[in-house]
Amino acid sequence: MYRRRPKYLNLTEIRLPLPAIVSVLHRISGAFLFFPGIPILLYGLQMLLDSPESYSEAYILLAWIPVKVVLTFLLWFFMHHLCAGIRHLALDLHFGEGLGQSRKSSVLVFLFSIILTLLFGAGIW
């Protein structure tokens, strides 16, 4: 039997479940940690280790509010990627595969990533 397929998908009407959102954000956070995260980390390390003058420049740069905001977002990307990675490892070991358990673990990923970001982000601010 021939079924007519839609000509296009309206992505604004698709509602993903929470575990799918956590999985997509895990991939996005990994990409953001790779491209802007690694160069920023290496540049900051170079500034800190190059000379006393560049160390003081890095110290002044880190006191700037937009830099603190960017570092806080990078910290959340890292914490979310860490928590979601632990969740994916548990799923690979067949822990929490049920629908209810999967939803609860997704909520816990968001909760723990925000709590850890607030705890470690206090050192940035």
List its traits.
125 residues, 4 helices, 3 helical TM bundles of succinate and fumarate reductases, mainly alpha, 78% helix
The CATH topology name reads: 3 helical TM bundles of succinate and fumarate reductases
Radius of gyration: 20 Å
- Identify the quaternary structure here: single chain
Q: How many discrete domains?
A: 1
Mean pLDDT: 92
CATH architectural name? Up-down Bundle
**DSSP strand count:** 0
Describe what this molecule looks like in 3D.
The chain has a single domain, classed as Fumarate reductase/succinate dehydrogenase, transmembrane subunit (3 helical TM bundles of succinate and fumarate reductases, Up-down Bundle), CATH 1.20.1300. The termini are far apart. The chain has helices spanning 18-50, 52-62, 65-92, 99-124. By secondary structure, it is mainly α. The mean pLDDT is 92. Helix 1 packs antiparallel against helix 2, helix 1 packs across helix 3 and helix 3 packs antiparallel against helix 4 (99-124).
